[in-house]
Amino acid sequence: MKKTTGMDRATTRSWRPATRALRGGTWRSEHGETSEALFLTSGYTYDDAGTVAARFAGSADGMTYSRLQNPTVAMLEERIALLEGAEACRAQASGMAAMTAALLCQLSAGDHMVAGRAAFGSCRWLVDSLLPRFGIETTTIDGTDDAAWEAAVRPNTRVFFFETPANPTLDVIDIAHVCAVARAHGIVTVVDNAFAGPTLQRPMELGADVVAYSATKLMDGQGRVLAGAVCGSRPFIEEQLLPFQRNTGPVLSPFNAWVVLKGLETLDLRARRQSEHALALGRLVEPRVPRLLHPGLESHPRHALAMRQMDACGAIFAFDVGTRSAAFALLDALGLIDISNNIGDARTLMCHPASTTHAGLDPAERAEMGVTEGLLRINVGLEDIADLSEDLDHALTAAGF
Ligand SMILES: *Cc1c(COP(=O)(O)O)cnc(C)c1O
User: Fold this and answer.
1) CA dihedral defined by 350, 353, 355, 357, rounded to 10 degrees?
2) Please, are residues 265 and 79 in contact by the beta-carbon 8 Å criterion?
3) Cis ω on the peptide bond leading into residue 165 (within 30° of 0)?
4) Comparing 2-264 with 267-398, is the CATH topology the same?
């Protein structure tokens, strides 16, 4: 394989974001293919015994087994690291594999973790159910309460874990503030950045230590594959994440890595266009419903903070229509927009979190997080904004709004 400039950090770090998203990490074979090659192989062969011995000893670069490294996956890892501005990145089998690895690789029995309470349903399950089973204490707080982070710190607190904007309540957490509190106590911050993605929000620039992704969402962007990624410093990735990942095995398939590489080529375009569409639709819906939450709208309690820490406010917003029956009536009246619990897709998708993504939590937890019975979440896509407006207008009217 011939290494091209896509893998040469000295060159790629001088590129601007759009160039990084399109060319970063490209590692061409001897054929000089334009598009990244798909290496569907689990194993590798060697010209002689000394070569493989050197690779296993760590004294020579090169592939040995695709649970440890694969050329297509390595291209994706390098591209995501470049987009994030991280020293290193490792791809994971899914977003939840990324969150699990980012936390379990560094926490042990007797440690304590503080987490923002508004979170993706499975992230809450990790915090509330999985980690405590292994003797890791967890505390959930209202992450938008700036003082609550410091107040929750204990002598054994090792990690702060949060997402912003949060799924599905669009809570916005002050990344720079929380990271500063963490740093003062020697605590590692792990940020789930799936909602915004690296072209709209880069938590490391604001002090985060580890950024974890569901690449299933905006990075793929076309609803095709599950994928995840963890970004961090080189020592964190090599000394903490890699031993965990290589020995437990939640690695990304090369095929899925290749699909996400294609998605990243258009990530910036999609994220910005979908943000514009979400703002336009949010403005249309807001006057007609009791409550609407979009960090890009002036009515959001943390609008000013969101505008400071994000380049654009994202494709997703939520609104409350009061009751589950009104929410279902609105969903059932949609013609173009699909009922779907996925996000990040180029298609506009809508769901009722209390009966889908957050159905596994008990009602008290949902209430505490703000996932009410009348809450609807919409992922705004790339369709013509006039068609989307007409469809939502019709559904709102049908549901009595
Ligand atoms: C979807 C999502 C996840 C989980 O990702 P998967 O790829 O579905 O495993 C985690 N966090 C957030 C914020 C998400 O939106």
Assistant:
1) 100
2) no
3) yes
4) no
Query: Which architecture does CATH list for 267-398?
Result: Alpha-Beta Complex (3.90)
Q: Write down the pLDDT at residue 4.
A: 61
* Ranges of the chain whose pLDDT falls below 70: 1-5
Q: Is the CB of 401 under 6 A from ligand 1?
A: no
Nearest partner of 243 among 43, 55, 105, 109, judged by Cα:
105
Domain ranges of the chain: 2-264, 267-398
The residue assigned the tokens 């993706």 is: 120
Instruction: Check the CA dihedral 304-309-312-316 and report its sign.
Output: negative
Distance 123 CA to ligand 1 centre (A): 8
* 190 Cα–ligand 1 center, Å: 14
Domain 2-264: state its class: alpha beta
- Nearest alpha carbon to residue 392 among 264, 304, 287: 287
pTM: 0.95
220 CB under 6 A from ligand 1? no
Å from CA of 390 to ligand 1 middle:
30
Q: Are 228 and 95 in contact (CB under 8 A)?
A: yes
